[in-house]
Design goal:
The complex is a heterodimer of chains A (288) and B (274). With 288 residues, chain A is an alpha/beta fold. Chain A contains 7 helices and 11 strands. Chain B has helices spanning 28-40, 59-68, 77-84, 96-111, 115-121, 158-167, 232-241, 246-254, 266-271, and strands at residues 13-15, 17-21, 45-48, 72-73, 128-132, 135-139, 172-175, 181-186, 191-196, 210-216, 222-228. Chain B is globular, with a radius of gyration of 17 Å. The chains are: A alpha/beta (288), B alpha/beta (274).
């Protein structure tokens, strides 16, 4: 197991308040794309963070339900590459609203139909978040790979036609001020009547990690309500343990337990440069 | 039982039938109509779950109506922000379009709420409790654990409701904040959760009417959602006269939400026009 990096022991802590959101890193870092700013450096090679075993995912869902979880997120990698995703979604949607974060390049009509059927059978919302990084093909494909823009747009149309109201999730690689309007215009141009857009900052982690940067100190957090941080209400189950943050999953300094959720309900170290971004921007990886 | 900051320290009131409303949003015309309706329906007490301001044209006209009808009010996030002179309404929008409307609305509300009324907002409790026959009722704005938590029907699991009820020693949870009503009976009717919706803005269902909840004690708790028609045209004209965004008046006239849609989950968003 990799060593815990320096600075973790002395880092400020975020308290654990309640388990509001459970994230499952379903495919680990296995993905069909290799985006230039990927938060956990996912790609098609042997994943550095292994996919989650279906039984582990089901156990986490059961544990989370007993803890009163509010919502569940499936991420990766590309979660639709997990061979058990549909039965796992069925299990999850039987207990809580569930969101899948996808790159939108592996969707088929049959899969979209299956998702619509699951959504229709559940009392809880199924959300599909489709990643784009620009409202123009060239800028998007520079980050995500050639042809990804066209494929993601096809997925957005397919999901919308099934009534699934996808959320475009983008990072602020371009001008943030007009980005919402540009994405909304793009979606309206596709015939999507209820355009939904979420924009996140670029976090200095994964392929976007630069030189060591600013980290939080207790002095930075004086007068700040740490319970408002996402990690106060979030736990993330990956193949090698439980974490407080979806974008730090797999990093030894962020691991809270190597097994059960119940063992990971303590304070989380705010040791990473990405924690400073989260604190500065007030960002949440959740839908809203 | 955990301690609950903001709970009312007074004796828990006991009732046979109560009316519960939320989200007044400065819509004095709608509030007047709803309060008149509660009298006709023999409600012994009327509770309001907060967010008196925002959206509508007449923030200060809401307060005398609440006093006249002896409405017992719970503090909402909007009330908290207005009372504290906070920078924004703490509604949590990230989309600049939604933030634009939220800021406009908040600035207008603060500017048109008297110092006396702002001071009164600061006295409101975060929770209230009541007893309806055998049922222990807990009232809050968003959720019992966070004033601005959205309890939408499609994102509020049974497991969460059971936990909230157990943590707060209640059988019935009443909330608002989303603006959309829903109810759920748990465990064969032993427990209930009711989001009472809003009286200041229509239901995003294509009709201008607004809704509140009537709860009646009995071995089985009776929950009835009551629809109230009011002079929405007058409320819409007042918005226009004050120079507030035309999208707000459109919502009052058509019953469809036109702004601040980003927090709606897929299921609820699908039901609306926009």
């Amino acid at each position: 197991m990799p060593a815990i990096p320096p600075g973790v022991a002395d880092a400020p802590r975020a308290p654990f308040v309640t388990l509001s959101a459970l994230w499952l890193v379903l495919t680990g870092t296995l993905c069909n794309l290799r985006c230039t700013h990927c938060l956990n450096a996912s790609g098609p090679d042997e994943p550095w963070l292994a996919p989650l075993d279906g039984a582990v995912a089901r156990r986490a869902l059961t544990e989370a339900e007993a803890l009163g979880v509010r919502e569940v997120y499936f991420t990766g990698g590309e979660p639709f590459l997990h061979r058990e995703i549909l039965p796992l979604l069925e299990t999850s949607l039987a207990m809580a609203a569930t969101t899948v974060l996808t790159n939108g390049t592996v969707m088929t009509d049959a899969l979209a139909g299956a998702l619509a059927a699951l959504a229709g059978a559940s009392r809880y919302s199924l959300e599909i978040r489709v990643s784009l990084d620009a409202a123009e093909a060239e800028a998007n494909d520079r980050v995500r790979g050639r042809g990804t823009w066209e494929r993601a747009l096809r997925t957005l149309r397919t999901l919308d036609a099934r009534g699934l109201l996808p959320i475009v999730t983008a990072t602020e690689i371009a001008d943030g001020a007009g980005a919402y309007d540009r994405f909304r215009a793009l979606l309206r141009g596709l015939g999507i009547a209820k355009p939904r857009v979420k924009i996140l900052p670029v976090f200095p982690v994964g392929r976007a990690a630069g030189a060591p940067g600013v980290r939080l100190t207790d002095t930075d957090l004086e007068g700040f309500d740490r319970t408002t941080l996402q990690c106060a209400e979030t736990r993330v189950v990956a193949a090698d343990g439980v974490y407080a943050c979806p974008i730090l999953a797999g990093l030894p300094g962020a691991r809270l337990s190597d097994g059960a959720l119940a063992a990971a309900l303590g304070p989380a170290a705010l040791y990473h440069e990405a924690c400073a971004t989260c604190h500065r921007t007030g960002a949440t990886c959740r839908n809203a | 039982m955990s301690s609950h900051r903001g709970d009312v320290p007074e004796r828990v009131s006991e009732h046979r039938r109560i009316a519960v409303l939320g989200g007044v949003y400065s819509n004095a015309e709608a509030l007047a109509a709803v309060l008149a309706d509660t009298r006709r329906r023999d409600a012994e007490a009327v509770f309001c779950l907060g967010d008196l301001g925002g959206f509508g044209a007449h923030p200060d006209r809401v307060f005398p109506l609440l006093r006249e009808h002896d409405v017992r009010v719970v503090r909402g996030n909007y009330d908290e922000a207005v009372a504290a002179g906070a920078a924004d309404c703490n509604c949590g929008y990230t989309d600049p379009r939604d933030n634009h409307y939220a800021r406009l609305s908040y600035a207008y509300t603060v500017a048109h709420t008297s110092a006396t009324n702002r001071a009164w907002l600061a006295t409101l409790p975060g929770h209230r409790r009541a007893r309806l026959g055998p049922h222990r009722v807990l009232m809050c704005h968003g959720s019992p654990r966070r004033i601005n938590e959205f309890l939408w029907e499609s994102t509020t699991p049974d497991g969460l409701l059971r936990r909230l009820l157990a943590d707060h020693a209640a059988d019935v949870l009443l909330c608002t904040h989303t603006g959309l009503k829903w109810r759920r009976a748990l465990d064969g009717g032993a427990a209930h959760a009711v989001n009472v919706g809003a009286v200041g803005r229509p239901e995003n269902d294509g009709t201008p009417d607004v809704w509140y909840a009537l709860l009646t004690a009995g071995p089985e708790l009776e929950v009835e959602f009551v629809s109230v028609a009011y002079d929405h045209e007058a409320a819409a004209r007042a918005l226009e006269a004050e120079g507030l965004p035309p999208e707000f008046a459109e919502t009052l006239r058509t019953g469809w939400w036109t702004t601040c849609l980003e927090n709606l989950p897929a299921r609820e968003r699908a039901r609306g026009r926009f």
